[in-house]
Amino acid sequence: MKNFRSTLVLFIIAALLIGYISLFDKKIKSTEERQRTENELFHVEASDINWLQIKSQSETVVLEKKDNQWKITSPIHVDADERTIDRYLVDLQYLEMRREIPPTELPKEDILKQWGFSNPSLEISFKTSKGKYDLIVGRKTAVSELVYARTSLGSNAPVYLISSSIADSLKKGLDDLRSRVVFHFNPFSVEKCGIRQMSGPSFSDYAVLKKGKQWEIQKPVLARADSTKLEQWFNDLLSLRVDKFVSDDGSNLNQYGLDSPRYQIWVGQSGKKDEDKLLVGNSLSSNSKQVYAKMAANNSVFTLETDMINRLVQNFLDIRDRHVLPAFSEEQVDKIGFQGKNLKLFYIKKGSDWQSEETEKGLANKTKIKDFIETLRNLESQEIKQEQMEIKVYGLDNPEEKIEIEFNPGLTMDKGQKVELYLGKVENGLIYAKNSIEPFVYTLKEEFTKSLPKTPWDWKDLSVMQLDPQEITQWDVSSSLQSFSVKRKEGKLIATGMADTDEEKLKDGLEYLSHLKAVRWIGPQGTELSKPQVKITVHAKKNYILLIGPSLPSGGRLALIEGNPLAFELEESIFRVLTSPQKNPSTLQEAKPQALR
Q1: Residues facing residue 596 across a β-bridge
Q2: Taking a C-beta distance cutoff of 8 angstroms, is the pair 579, 587 a contact?
Q3: For the residues of 245-266, what is the DSSP string, one character each?
Q4: Nearest-CA neighbor of 514 among 538, 483, 495, 532?
Q5: Exposed (0-12), middle (13-18) or buried (19+): which is 218, by Cβ within 10 Å?
Q6: Mean pLDDT to the nearest integer, 364-369
Q7: Cβ–Cβ < 8 Å for 333, 405
Q8: Which DSSP string corresponds to 316-376?
Q9: Average pLDDT rounded to a whole number, residues 173-193
Q10: Taking the model in full, what pTM does it have?
Q11: Rounded to whole angstroms, how far apart are CA atoms 352 and 494?
């Protein structure tokens, strides 16, 4: 009981101590906050400021907030840099005095001249809905990093000492405050864009137009544009920043090479009559890494990085879509087929499965179909030939191989259509190709042909038997070495003819036989399985006889279902479970075969 009272007393003391420390800490913070607020020169919120004038000994800049955006209204009308203005207004909001000299302590002599107020280094005026505020900055003090400042030049106004570093940061000129962003547009609103090479050996015009959901090159050739590349080009354009402002009077553009610019980079937006045009002129004589430029809509001449302009031009010239087929999604493909010299295969989508349309009816290997569709989606040309009349040269006048795809309408296509891809001759490791809806000849790596089916069973579904495990009442295994049977008895699997069997292996065997899958289809066999090494008879509503032959170089076993001419490769680990289901300590820790993973 005594220990309990001691513990309780200690607990109460600790709680009181924590409460006192918390209260003391809050009091300190509250005092610091109040002191900081009292030292602020202007008790305003930065977000309430809607007009600003900054006057130095060399220039005066006036800014206004219109429609929640800052604009420079004098000496020129241009956009302001929003981030710079936001930081500037926050500095004004929290501008603190280090010391106040009340009017009664001011010297009798002319302090305007003595402390630098007759010709101030900086004058700042700003407005909120509550009124107008001023800051006049004089000279530095003699003994510390402070400057004299006043909020009014009236005789009854005090003098403040403020940090000289803060005062210096408030000395912003026109070039510091104006926006350096070259282009302002929403990529989703762009309907057309392009580059005109205005000078040089020849005039070139490159233009891209949005048609429906797709981008299309209009000049110099009618072709598909790569939307991904175009999106990156827009991002590069929006990231373009002015390096240095040169002039704002718009006269004598000849000296900058802007009366006849090298390039005109333009963007057209929906709902906007005129295009946004960037004119690019000469390189600077003093610095070849910079070029003169201006927007066509205003007079400001500035400099940009030469490398950035070159990158924008080169990337736009490479905006053409190199995919051999127009953009599509896997979900849009309803039918796919291949026709070769002695092979014709067509597959139709049935729900989530694919089914053969040919004489070899049945499900297709949807993994291979999906992989091939993905290959077609990503198929890009190494080079695009513009010659439209010489398809005979490329072996495409009467192609022996073609791929056919039927699409339904979807996200990337406005309507359903059928597209054929013709394959021509092979040269230097490349195969010529052409689709049925465009006039161009494409060159593909020859290895693309490895993805094409070579036999009617290449894309056949790998399922050999699909049974309900409850259907199987018994299976018999016979070989030259042993014979045994597995039956159901009182809910268990019992093996006869073999001792020391592993019930788990018998269950695995039942699962394998119920959903027997091939590693791959091999094709029709002659006499290789006329004398099989192992014969497994599966008793169900319909009996199946599985014939298993010798090992294959790939590691599996040659096998087929009696009555089906197509042989397949059976996984070796499945073969071992079906033929040797004994308890074997050396194999108990083996990983399960692929079919059960």
Answers
A1: none
A2: no
A3: EEESS---GGGGT-SS-SEEEE
A4: 538
A5: middle
A6: 92
A7: yes
A8: HHT-B--BSS----GGGEEEEEEE-SS-EEEEEEETTEEEE-SSS-EEB-HHHHHHHHHHH
A9: 96
A10: 0.75
A11: 38
